[in-house]
User: What shape does this take?
Amino acid sequence: MVRSLLTVDWDYFIPSKKEWFFSYIENDKNLTQLWYKRYIKGKLEGEDLEKTIKVGKVIKGFWDKIKTQFEFDKNIKIFVSESHKVAYYLAKNFECSEVISFDANSDLGYGGLPSLDFELNCANWLGKLLKEGIVKRANIVYSPYTFEKPSDFEDFNNLYNIQYYKSVEELPKENLIGVIHICRSGIWTPPWLDERFEKFINELGLPFKKIPLKERKWEVSKLSYADQIFYLNFA
Assistant: This one.
């Protein structure tokens, strides 16, 4: 069987807004302050983001489907992180020959093949694994809420073995899952869903190791008028 890394981005489960899907630096400011800005701006436009940005129905029974579709290594390792780029190191360190990625984004690299010459980041980690020959195949299961399509990455598709799927059930069953990685991607997933993220991790029912993950305090009810002005103008 093929030894694989299964990596799941929390944004796979969350319907989002197209205008939020830009490249952002993964830092403390963007992890929380950016969400306050989005929330306040939404309120000014008549939208309560806490009510409109929720976890989608695709999360129902997710781990049960995974366990039905794949065999897990008896010594399987599970890691939880903030950034998806951690998947690069896991695939490399645990000698996985394939990646199965559930994500709203391909993370092959944006801006064409030259983006693989950039330093490793959350947007090109999968492309780098392929370019460096660390993995031989990438299986991308796109979120039903994605704004991308496989044809957006034609240059990559012509050069590397990349397959795209729409559901767990479509994936080939010959993969032995040696490592599971779950990332929060907090710049693209809101703080008010962090508790649901923790529940999702625990629903797997297996021990895991957390790679430092910042706890985000979401106290929008305590924001002063000055706070709101600050976040709108400087976040």
Summary: The longest helix spans residues 28-44.
